[in-house]
Amino acid sequence: MLFRNATVFTGTELVSQASVRVENGRILEVNTTDVSEATPNSIDLAGDYLVPGFVDLQVYGGTQVFLNQAPTANTVRHILNAHRRCGTTSVLPTLFTAPQSVLMQAAEAVREVMHEQPFGVLGFHAEGPYISPDRRGVHPAAAICTPNLDQLAHLFGQYGDVLSLMTLAPEQFTPEQWTWLLAHKPARLQLSIGHSNATYGQARRALNEGVTLATHLYNAMRGFESREPGVVGAVFDHPTVQSSLVADGFHCDPVSIRLAHRLLGNRLFLISDALLIRPQQHQFWLTADMPLHYENGRILNHQNQLAGSAITLLDAVQLCVEQVGISLPNALQMASTVPAQVAGFGHTLGKIAPGYVANLLRLDHRLELQNVWIEGSPVM
């Protein structure tokens, strides 16, 4: 297959009037001077953008069900397929704070679909249960627990090949537990500070000692104050930590996003944090005792707290360009190139370059999605 007359985002820059050749699901060639002629196997993009498929490292559900509701392989498939139709071609299915039994069911489900779709489901994100009760957001209080090394050892032993990311509050661990965690966590597992009430000093120590990420910057973490910079200050002050952010128009003001991008640059990446994508139902349940309602683009609990989002990564890219003022190449990097690297797939996903998987999107010049290709095959 040959994509002609495209404005290609390579992962670093936009190149106009370019062509991309795909063979056996991989990108074979990128020609920055499009001199190709129309053939039966070519697609003329008429100048539209051809960009790498987006990579979402925090997504709870699809259009109808989320992982905590039904921690099954079919739910994982539903999440992947629902987001693929919206331009997100790779995901980390995410489970918010839940009992150990549910956590292990979800990990088993993710493992099954990982084997089916290794470039679609990249691993499993466990958000909790070792988080701060003071910064739990809408996470169910009853499921939050203090660190248990026997539980962690069992989880790591059974699902070390599946766990990619764990969001936790480091201040909940004793020094001995923290030392054990850093020594025994699976090699592929990255730790992310989130839902944390840590002081600047506590957060800085965690970032220096092995925590490489921060989860949904600004939200559910101790904020920045002049006398106590908190978790937000520690993230801004650290030279290497990378952080996710929810750009849905509700979790963060555009000014806050702009400042974070100015400080972190390409260490900032986008997540949808989607519980459900634009739910059809206006009332549903997060847990058996927590009703939610969807209104005006927001999912809220009975106390009007945000319960995740209802967006896709494309929505976040559009907001970053149109309301925040981030350049299109930088916004596309935040949704593809950077999260692919964070997930450990920077050599195969998130760029349009020879050898990369041909997960591709066609966007028009209003940044509306026109087509999706998975490993070179159309799905939309």
From TrEMBL:
Record-given protein name: N-acetylglucosamine-6-phosphate deacetylase
SUPFAM superfamilies according to UniProt: Composite domain of metallo-dependent hydrolases (SSF51338), Metallo-dependent hydrolases (SSF51556)
Keyword annotations: Carbohydrate metabolism, Hydrolase, Metal-binding
EC number, UniProt record: 3.5.1.25
Taxonomy, superkingdom: Bacteria
Similarity remark: Belongs to the metallo-dependent hydrolases superfamily. NagA family.
All copies of domain Amidohydrolase-related, residue ranges: 49-376
Chain's gene name: nagA
Positions of substrate binding: V138, N219, A220, R227, H251, L306, A307, G308
Any single biological process term in GO: N-acetylglucosamine catabolic process
Cofactor(s) in the UniProt record: a divalent metal cation
The keyword Oxidoreductase belongs to this UniProt entry's keyword annotation: no
InterPro entries reported for this sequence: Amidohydro-rel (IPR006680), GlcNAc_6-P_deAcase (IPR003764), Metal-dep_hydrolase_composite (IPR011059), Metal_Hydrolase (IPR032466)
Cofactor note: Binds 1 divalent metal cation per subunit.
Annotated residues for binding of Zn(2+): E127, H195, H216
Positions annotated as active site in the UniProt record: D273 (proton donor/acceptor)
Species assigned in the record: Rudanella paleaurantiibacter
Keyword Protein biosynthesis applies: no
Single GO MF descriptor: N-acetylglucosamine-6-phosphate deacetylase activity
Pfam family, one: Amidohydro_1
